[in-house]
Specification:
The complex is a heterodimer of chains A (about 140) and B (about 400). With about 140 residues, chain A is of the alpha+beta class. Chain A contains 5 helices and 5 strands; from the N terminus they run ααβββββααα. Chain A has one domain: Sufe protein. Chain: A, CATH 3.90.1010. Chain A starts with a helix and ends with a helix. Helix content of chain B is about 40%, strand content about 15%. Classes of the chains: A alpha+beta (about 140), B alpha/beta (about 400). The interface between A and B is medium-sized, with 28 and 23 residues.
Amino acid sequence: MALNRLQQLYRSVIVEAAAKPATWGDVSGAVPVHAVNPSCGDKLELALRLDETGRISGLAVPTTGCTISQASASLLVGVVAGKTRAEALTLTDEFIAMIREGTPAPAALGDAAALASVHEFPARVKCALLAWTALRQALGAKGAA
Amino acid sequence: MSEELTKQWRADFPLFTAQPDLVYMDQGATGQYPQPVIDAMMNFATTGNAPVHRGLYRLAYDATSAFEGVRQQVADFIGARTANEIVFTSGTTAAINLVAQSFGRLFVDQGSEVLVSVAEHHSNFLPWQRLCEQTGAKLVVAPITADGAIDEQWVLAHINVHTRIVALAQETNVSGARLQDARAIADRVHANGGYLLLDGAQGLAHQAVDVQALGCDFYAFSGHKIYGPSGIGCLYGRQELLTEMPPVTLGGGMIEEVSIRGASWLPAPERFEAGSQNVLGVIGLGAAIDYLQPRRAAITSYCSTLTRQLRQQLAAIPDVQLYSSQAACATLSFNLDGVHAHDLATFLDEQNIAVRAGHHCAQPLMHALAVPAVVRATLGAYTSVRDGQRLVAAVQQAREFFGGESHGA
């Protein structure tokens, strides 16, 4: 019985994050980035606003999908809220390395480090990365250096 | 339940010797190999491999004879008139795309209608959607019944003189419902000057097929869903239709003559088999038919009984929603309320139960059912009663696990 692995994957911080709306700040007027996980049907619309100093002033990532994809979106919002574009990109890289390579999570990833065990579930890696790769795309597309 | 039979069949599949604890319930996606199929492929690879239709030496002649022998075997297996009505393809998907892009471009134009159902696998939906975009024809999409079957009365009522092609799954891949009267649909569409294609990807494993009795003009299937290898499948097409159809893929092995001004094609079926063929796959397909044909009725009867029992047991678990048909002979599609299909599939995988979860390449159906994804367990000859018990027990455990229990800190 592999309940321990499952208990790690579905820790209460993750289940609770999945139930929370993934939104912070004001995203009015933002052009949403649409992302899907075609193998499983997870879907999200990421809306991002940066203020005049290049800091994230609003981020909403409404997601329909599994617990992991929804928790990941909600944790992403918590981690990058108020960060500069460069900081957000660094955090995103660190999160992606944690999920893909199993790299230890830096403290700055906060509660998002709870998703580290997804590395042990290769079939679920895409679920955990969907929101974070969409943010990378949105930050790139904004061209706000 | 005939446990003895299952034990015999299960012992035919060496994967379960290597993985004795595995509950493999994804036969509907890809089947496991029985030993005779492995042996036939190994034997050909180690003693008989050569190019077909090309070499002038004895080894190539023998390989060609074996290859063409399987074509005749397939023709006999599905009731074709001659082996020339059997085209080897890489699978069902390639077979349907070939019909859409070759036959479709000849017979479908603006003002035509192509009739499919909302329950089709993308491989029997997208080729027709594209054909309609290319030609200006109208895609007519039949609904499903409350039990998940294609609504055959709706189909019959919507065939008219504009209907050029009706393309339907003989057995749908999510609900497992089977067409009840393909012949009535064939007769109606023929009376209106159109044609019928049946997607046999799921159906052929479970029922005897006689394309002449069914009345279909085309029939497509895949090797790996009938205990053979992946990467090989067949298109059956009525000879007079194949003869009129232009090739879609051009290359070696399908020409009569080529000059810098043009080319002429070999007759069907070689016309549609450009490039080096999957000879090893064809040999494996022949062995799979040898394996399945004498056992199919007994396997289907066994799987149907087990599927019905498991369906009742799953239905008795609170919060389980079933999407597969009550008449399904090997398919159980379901969800647990409040738990996404992928979370449930991961839970089952941790108990070493392999199921499919997702949209099953049937997004129009998912939209019709208003669910993003479902879990699908499909049974095969090797599925044991104990496999079924483990599935039901694990779904019950998943309900407890995800149902608000504390999940560790």
